[in-house]
Amino acid sequence: MKIHLKIWRQKDRQTKGAFKDYTLEDVSKDMSFLEMLDTLNIKLIKSGERPVEFDHDCREGICGQCGVMINGIAHGPLKHTTTCQLHMRSFEDGDTIYVEPFKAAAFPIVRDLKVNRSSLDHIIASGGYVSVDTGQAPEANSIPVTHEQAEAAFDAAACIGCGACVASCKNSSAALFTSAKISQLAQLPQGDKETSKRVVKMVYQMEEEGFGHCSFTEACQVECPEDISVLNIARMNYEYNKARLLKK
Amino acid sequence: MSITIKANIPEGPLAEKWNNYKAKAKLVSPNNRKKLDVIMVGTGLAGASAAASLGEMGYNVKSFCFQDSARRAHSVAAQGGVNAAKNYKNDGDSVYRMFHDTLKGGDFRSREANTYRLAECSASLIDQAVAQGVPFGREYGGYLRNRSFGGVQVSRTFYARGQTGQQLLLGSYQALLRQQNAGKVKLYTRHEMLDLVMVDGKARGIIARNLDTGEIERHSAHAVVLATGGFGKIYYLSTLAMGCNASAIWRAHKKGAYMANPSWTQIHPTSLPQSGEHQSKLTLMSESLRNDGRIWVPNDPKETRLPGDIPEEDRDYYLERKYPAFGNLAPRDIASRAAKEQIDLGKGVGALKNAVYLDFSRAIKEYGQEVIAERYGNLFTMYKKITGIDAYTEPMKISPAAHFSMGGLWVDYDLQTSLPGLFAIGEANFSDHGANRLGANSLLQACVDGYFILPYTLQNYLADEIRVPKIDVNHKAFEETEQKVRQQLEGFLKSKGNKTAEEFHKELGKELYDKCGLLRTKAGLQKAIENIQNLRKEFTENLLVPGDIEEVNSELEKAGRVSDYMELAELMCIDALRREESCGAHFRAEHQTEEGEAKRDDENYCYSAAWEWTGNPSSPVLNKEPLVFETVKPTVRSYK
Questions:
Q1: Sign (positive or negative) of CA dihedral B126, B130, B135, B140
Q2: Do A230 and A129 share a structural domain?
Q3: Chain A residues touching residue B128 (CB < 8 angstroms)
Q4: Residues of A with CB below 8 A from B550's CB?
Q5: Exactly one of B111, B332, B536, B588 is catalytic; which is it?
Q6: Among A230, B155, B169, B388, which one is least packed by beta carbons within 10 Å?
């Protein structure tokens, strides 16, 4: 297939960026989107141009390192799919594809399509864990967790931390990301003890990092590769209000 | 001069060794721990769990990873599960049984005491992970669920859907960030270690490049721990992440740390086959699929019917036929080789005839699609995304792919390398799996090394360092090492040839896969060594790297990694050539039984090869650690 690309190029945070046009002639339908960019990069390097910088690592949809806006949609047109798992069979011969970085005030640009998502780590560091040291754990089966509880916790825990929810949100809110961790731990007896403290700290940190507020458009779940449910946000708000009311 | 090396295995009967060690190991008092710095390179399960545990104890930890977040290290991609001898199933499991399975699975080429310790510490890991909130699969009554994995006859594998690695890693990543929040761990993401700094014979720091700015930085500590994972990516097409590399361990090797059994690479039997030249990686389908999937090929190489139209009598369920006791759950090396055998006979399926079928139709008939979806739903979805095929109605096509490095930096019982103060944990070391790793033992080893072993053994080392003040990064050793790193990077940029690092990597990978992969021969390995030497020469003359050092530059990162692979690849071939036997994943065509199984030579090769760098990649020195079996007598490994 022949594919036209309009890719966002930006040298660094200080320099102004712009779209640049490229055309690839022999794109195979079996290529992944990132393999298509690999092909472009080899071409660019050989012609003396700088290759397009983009983030990626596992290329099997689990590490959360890749992620770009493809025609305005985080991770592209295929639902519940990371950029690395998107294949060119989702496009047609002659298509023009716009490729941009994830944009948010809390995700400063590094170069081209690479952004810095450390703000998500900061949210987890503020309280997204169970406070247990190595060696303190009791026998694993001493705390039964029902099948349903474990599955519900897992649904929230499946978040890969890619930041698509932030990029797709008109307010650049990290509510889905933050609430998924709060929700996972609140639904397990191991994590529930700290829920009130955790939710207050994590919500505070989310604001500190410069993420916007959630206004319930639910766009985040639509573009989330793991289909993390917006009901987690409802749970976060419930836990937050409870914690504030009880002044814990 | 080659030497015989000792592993510092503690005295006493096998089951008492680790307890004896812990009883006698030196300690550092809590108020002294805050004076000691530790560098941890890598934030996968081994690195994150060790950094978190050391931070909790009170040490100052500097933790490095090249990814943009610690949570993205490649442990995240492990799917199937983690083993532990809990015997929750009451099916005859025990620490001894697990130890024996692991030792036998490794074809009696691992260190008995280490393997036993792995099994011994396994139960505590499940306790720790559950306490962290890892959502393992549960029975309806609320108790933990288990399944079976390749190479064993009990159910001792704990799992979190098909994302066990992700969930375990998130547990240790969160523990790590908790220590960051507490000020005990300082995280350096997007940093790549480019060399080890030795001061007066001890590992005292690293030179790292900040991948966001290109700045070359010096970091010092009282001890350095490498938890940088495996190097299967050397084959280019592999199940590993694109960034996985050997650079940290290889550069430590060039500073004097021995590399052990580098050629022992596990080729995983259930990966997706290559579909074309553009391909950058092979996606793994968890081995757990072999619990319910049946592997087969058509009897007739000229078969043209769709798989669903091929009747039972025209199919060859070759694993069930050849290994009736273990069937589709035969260990990975055996399953991969059997697949290659069928593919070489022309019975491969798919457009390139490079795959075999993994068929779920019987399991779906027996348990219903819903049950299969709950067990493997995410894997079926992933399969569909990549291939466009629905595996509920049509068998998957799978193929072997490079996966895990059993080899790595040589370490003693303390997980210390041959360089004082340099430790290696997780897949970066060589110690526990012998010549073949059993499924679900990799997550286990990484976690056990990090949570339960290194905190004791590193402390035993640090106890003698409490009077050593903070290491000064202005020491001339740092200066010299930094200069060398700069020179190398400048060299890559100056070369201005016309082949990219990736193109060299692909060529090298193909050479290795063909001649130092599933099947090795003397002539093939000799040829590979010659070809690798030529390729390495071309690499120094014809490499093309754009851009500069002091900026974001992915191509420069790749060049450094490929440059290390060029040397390591030759060592792998030399290692495979020197070992005139077959064991586990190392299969030399010259050494096989009449039935085509691996033929070990315990008389001459019952040792771990610990290679020493001499300055010339073509002439390393072979040191040997004899493997002494005090408890188990090595037998012919049979899964029939």
A1: positive
A2: yes
A3: 132, 134-135, 137
A4: none
A5: B332
A6: B388
Q: What is the chain B residue with the closest CA to A81?
A: B385
Percent of chain A with pLDDT over 90: 98
Nearest by CB to A65, which of B72, B177, B281?
A: B72
Chain A CB contacts of B187 under 8 Å are 121
Domain count, chain A: 2
Q: Do A101 and A147 sit in the same domain of this protein?
A: no
Q: Are residues A93 and A174 in the same domain?
A: no
How close does chain A come to B79, measured CA to CA in Å? 10
Which chain A residues have a beta carbon less than 8 Å from that of B385?
A: 61, 78, 81, 85, 87
**pLDDT tens, position by position, A91-140:** 999 999 999 999 999 999 999 999 999 999 999 999 999 999 999 999 99
B67, B177, B546: residue with CB nearest A65:
B67
- d(CA B240, nearest CA chain A) in Å: 7
User: Smallest CA–CA separation between B542 and chain A, in Å?
Assistant: 12
As beta bridge partners, residue B199 has B202
The whole domain housing A20 covers: 3-111
Nearest to B68 among A117, A141, A151 (CB): A117
Please check the confidence at residue A248 and state whether its pLDDT lies above 70. Answer: no
pLDDT tens digit sequence for B584-619: 999 999 999 988 889 999 999 999 999 999 999 999
- How far is the C-alpha of B433 from the C-alpha of B374, rounded, in Å? 31
**Taking CB atoms and an 8 Å limit, are A138 and B67 in contact across chains?**
no
* Contact criterion met (CB below 8 Å) for B43 and B65: yes
Single out the residue of A145, A229, A110, A39 nearest to residue B134, CA to CA.
A145
ipTM for the whole complex: 0.98
Long-range contacts, A213-220 (Cβ 8 Å, 24+): A213/A171, A213/A173, A213/A175, A214/A169, A214/A171, A214/A173, A214/A175, A215/A170, A215/A171, A215/A173, A217/A169, A217/A170, A219/A168, A219/A169, A219/A170, A220/A164, A220/A165, A220/A166, A220/A168, A220/A169, A220/A173, A220/A175, A220/A176
Q: Which domains does chain B have, with CATH numbers?
A: 268-402 (3.90.700.10), 476-626 (1.20.58.100)
Distance from CA of B309 to the nearest CA of A (A): 26
Check whether residue A8 and residue A48 sit in a common domain. yes
Residue B288: pLDDT band (50, 70, 90) is confident
Q: Is B332 a catalytic residue?
A: yes
State CA B614 to chain mean position distance. Answer: 25
Put simply, the answer to whether A150 touches B503 (Cβ < 8 Å) is no
A79 and A161 share one domain: no
Inter-chain touch A191–B133, beta carbons under 8 Å = yes
Both A121 and A239 in one domain: the answer is: yes
A-chain CB neighbours of B275 within 8 Å are: 30
| A105 plus A145 within the same structural domain | no
The average confidence (pLDDT) of chain B is: 96
Which whole number is the average pLDDT over B464-482? 98
The CATH number linked to A150 is 1.10.1060.10
Q: Which residue has the tokens 């390749």?
A: B150
- What pLDDT, in 10s, does the model give residues A53-104? 999 999 999 999 999 999 999 999 999 999 999 999 999 999 999 999 999 9
Beta carbons of B174 and A130 less than 8 Å apart: yes
Q: Note whether A240 and A157 are same-domain residues.
A: yes
Compute the average pLDDT of residues B369-375.
90
